[in-house]
Amino acid sequence: MITQWFFRHGDRRSLIAIIILVAVACLVPVLNLLVPDTSPFHVPTYLVSLLGKYLTYALLAVALDLVWGFCGILSLGHGAFFALGGYAMGMYLMRQIGPRGVYADPVLPDFMVFLNWKELPWFWYGFDNFWFAALMVVLVPGVLAFGFGWLAFRSRVTGVYLSIITQALTYALLLAFFRNDMGFGGNNGLTDFKDILGFNVQAGTTRSALFAATALFLALAVLVSSFIIRSKLGKVLVGVRDAESRMRFLGYRVDRYKLFVWTVSAMMAGIAGALYVPQVGIINPSEFEPANSIEAVIWVAVGGRGTIIGPIIGAILVNFGKTYFTAAFPEIWLFALGALFILVTLFLPKGILGLYGSWQARRASHAAQKDDEVLPPVVKQSSKRLAEPEPQAAE
Amino acid sequence: MKAKDTLLYLDGVSVSFDGFRAINNLSLVLQSGEMRAIIGPNGAGKTTMMDIITGKTKPDSGDVYFNGTVDLTGHDEADIAMLGIGRKFQKPTVFESHTVEDNLVLALSGPRSALSALFHRQSRDETDRIHEILYTIRLFEKRHWLAASLSHGQKQWLEIGMLLAQDPKLLLVDEPVAGMTDAETAETAKLLRDIARTRSVIVVEHDMHFVRELGVKVTCLHEGSVLAEGSLDHVSNDPRVIEVYLGR
Ligand SMILES: Nc1ncnc2c1ncn2[C@@H]1O[C@H](COP(=O)(O)OP(=O)(O)OP(=O)(O)O)[C@@H](O)[C@H]1O
Ligand SMILES: [Mg+2]
Predict the structure, then answer these.
(1) What backbone phi and psi angles, to 5 degrees, belong to B22?
(2) Looking at B54, B83, B112, which one is the last position of a domain?
């Protein structure tokens, strides 16, 4: 039925991406757990976690593209939602440690004992329950995004001003989470995790399971994004991106549409953060660094904004590059990233996927010429459609 | 004159931008079912008047009533659109990265809430209405084109089509024939006369041939207020109109 829906709505690319992700979710654990170390097909556990981390970044990128690529809201603070989801998961993992901490307190995490706290703060209640924590993973970023968006979109803050206040949001959270008395482990954050749902987080099987879960959540995010974008609501969003005030004169309450997609996007980012934390084994305030959010924007730009799967490709490629460069030439990584961003903005305004799109369109127009058919407008249409045009400022 | 029994009622409306009075004590009344042409030199305040009616600009003073009782100054753009006032912009504004058909889908009257849009499925009835409009605006063959690839004149027509899809009680049409050939201009005049049979229309236009073809009451604006009003012959023989506008 889902396949049918995709075909009816002509979103073959998303369907292919979902199939690949589901296949990867099955295959990588098999190659890690069942194929012996000696085989060239064996995927070592460190690589499973590394790939899992990339996929959580890809999920963040999909979330960001939903608001930026399709609705024109350039968020420079999506890392904040990612980090909040991560902290919610981290709090669960901390409480799973129980009496196995250095100070062996059955309830209080080590850092609280160290700070001489006697009681668990109220906002840590419930986090010993996985499902409560899982709810908070989406609820905390969702509620924050809703409140923030409600204020910002209703007062019609757009463009650069909105970008700046999203940046301020993540910076404010960075400063807050640095403080020890906030109760989130301050500078050091949350780490030394032991179990998740009763399984050892270090175990190869757990790591494979986390990887598979990440790939499946990413597939789900592609499905949800595709459903949103192909719906009439998605058309309204793209209309808002291209000519916001025109949309209002048609009777649409633009602020509510933005609020919807903004909140959905923040929840997706929260899930990405929650999957990230058990795979990297730590969450600390540096995840709120404004630079992190800006990096996420670069992934989307490189992959192709306004496409659903472009951001996935961008996030994975850029992070492969980052892993390689920071090991081989640590000094130049930031310059390489900066140069990449400039090159992409100048020469690939529609990202890698846009490049592929225009190549495909050129091929189509060659084919059309060969058939001696006079169909320029249709070709024009298909090429423009694949590489969605630059958003224009509302009049 | 009373606001009651009128479709649109502007009385003593003024608005200033940084001390400059773009609209100055403007009064204008439109009866239900009426079509009115508005002329006047550049900067007379024609577009600004439409901005006020559609809620884009709030007047500094004066009354703006729709349907006799609804105070438009207390509503925003989306509310006013839902009350039944549609607008075509001076610079044609369509959604360029959507197809012609999707532009009409977005404009089509119906629920506007985000939730209903998320689960919206186009009914047979809606498809028929869209196709009918596509034929009316002569863009049926081009319905799968991106709006960005239309010519200027076609964009004007698409925007008129969007107005039709919105199905408003009152249409505000700002310079609909700019950039059209004479033949297209004549077609547009015919289309607007058709539309005016069932709705009220305000048309702003500089093209006097076009205004003549509409054959309706004319209001000439100058420096933010009404300079002359009446039949086209009456207005175009007014010495003040000749001086500030026609005689140039
Ligand atoms: N938002 C604004 N801020 C400042 N000045 C404005 C604004 N909108 C309109 N004006 C000024 O108000 C005056 C009236 O402009 P308006 O666009 O209404 O003229 P118009 O009659 O539509 O002219 P045209 O025939 O050229 O379209 C102009 O001098 C314009 O510069
Ligand atoms: Mg004007």
Answers:
(1) -75, -35
(2) B83
State whether B97 and B196 are in the same domain.
Answer: yes
Do B27 and B116 fall into the same domain? no
- Say whether residue A252 is in contact with chain B using an 8 A CB cutoff: yes
Are residues B95 and B159 part of one domain?
yes
Q: Give the ligand with the smallest distance to the CA of B41.
A: 1
Check whether residue B131 and residue B102 sit in a common domain: yes
- Does residue A56 contact residue A46 with C-beta atoms inside 8 Å? no
B245 found inside a domain: no
| Beta-carbon contacts of residue A203 (< 8 Å; ≥ 6 apart) | none
B202–chain A nearest CA distance, Å: 16
Q: Are A171 and A290 in contact (CB under 8 A)?
A: yes
Q: Is A248 exposed, middle or buried (0-12, 13-18, 19+ CB in 10 A)?
A: buried
Give the pairing of strands A199-200 and A195-196. antiparallel
The phi, psi pair for B204, rounded to 5°, reads: -100, 130
CA distance B160 to B178: 13
Domain co-membership, B44 together with B100 = no
Domain end marker among B83, B114, B148: B83
One domain, residues B92 and B79: no
CATH assignment of the domain containing B30: 3.40.50.300
Name the residue of chain A whose CA is nearest to B78's CA. Answer: A251
At A373, list the tokens: 């058919």
Contact A232 B82 (CB under 8 A): no
State how many domains chain B has: 2
Residue numbers in chain A where pLDDT is lower than 50: 371-395
Same-domain check for residues B140 and B35: no
What pLDDT is recorded for position A291? 94
Domain containing residue B9: 1-83
Residues A150/A263, Cβ–Cβ less than 8 Å: no
pLDDT at position A388 is: 40
Which residues of B are less than 8 Å from A146 in CB distance?
A: none
- The predicted pLDDT at position A368 comes to 56
Instruction: Give the residue, out of B13, B26, B47, with the most ligand 1 atoms within 8 A of its beta carbon, to mutate for a pocket test.
Output: B47
CA distances from A290 to A172, A294, B70, B154 (A): 10, 6, 48, 45
Sheet holding B200-204, edge to edge: B85-88, B170-174, B200-204, B35-39, B217-222, B225-230
Is the CB of residue A89 less than 8 Å from the CB of residue A141?
A: no
In a domain, B239, yes or no: no
Which residues, in sequence order, are bridge partners of residue B65? B9, B71
Contact A262, A53 (CB under 8 A): no
In a domain, B247, yes or no: no
Residues 85-124 of A with CB under 8 A from B: none
The minimal CB distance from A381 to the residues B145, B162, B166 is found for B145
Q: What is the mean pLDDT of residues B85-114?
A: 95
Alpha carbons A268 and A302: distance in angstroms, whole number:
20
Residue of A353, A283, A282 whose CA lies nearest to A317:
A353
Structure tokens given for A12: 């073959």
B71 and B179: one domain? Answer: no
**Residue A257: which of B77, B114, B149 has the nearest Cβ?**
B114
**Residue B226, pLDDT score:** 95
What pTM does this model have?
Answer: 0.91
User: Residues B161, B147: contact at Cβ < 8 Å?
Assistant: no
